[in-house]
Amino acid sequence: MNQVEHQLRLTIEALRERQEHELVNNPDIGLLHAADVSQRVPTRSGPPTPEDMDAILARRKKSRFYLAHPKAIAAFGRECNRRGIYPEPAEVQGRPVHAWRGVPILPCDKIPITRDNTTSILVMRTGEKDQGVIGLHRTGIPDEYEPSLSVRFMGIDQRAIIAYLVSAYYSVAVLVPDALGVLENVELGR
After folding, report:
1. Residue 123 to residues 12, 35, 144, 167, Cα–Cα distance (Å)
2. For the chain, how big is the Rg over CA atoms in Å?
3. More confident residue, 7 or 51
């Protein structure tokens, strides 16, 4: 077993988790903060209803997916069940996922839940061709280990501890305001 290789793999996994958190929550680049005011819709009654999901879906063409906390997906499922609505699942990478009107609802535990037990649901169109949300990264960096990820050997100290500097370069851009919508004040349970 190569201990350094496994420690580096675990470090990169932790860095990628932090990257996902930043892409959703960062006040400068995060999706929750990048949504245009005109694309923010409050829920009608608290829990996410089919009407709420339609309200944010109708504001954009070619929506690729919803992004929601797993508890928000469960709350939406309860509202559908209460009304006797059973949406068809969608297939993403060979696996069935919850969907609404054919648009997959992907889980993201990085979307925060407030003290009032509310959260947000994002819906987005992606890709440069469709003027959607795109991920930005930098390639060709020194000591590139993966695209836009640098691992630089920093040396071995007197206690025989190897040090590496691991850096990730990333951002996200919303190309036009209607590429990203947010359903706000989603209640998770009463």
Report:
1. 28, 10, 32, 29
2. 20
3. 51
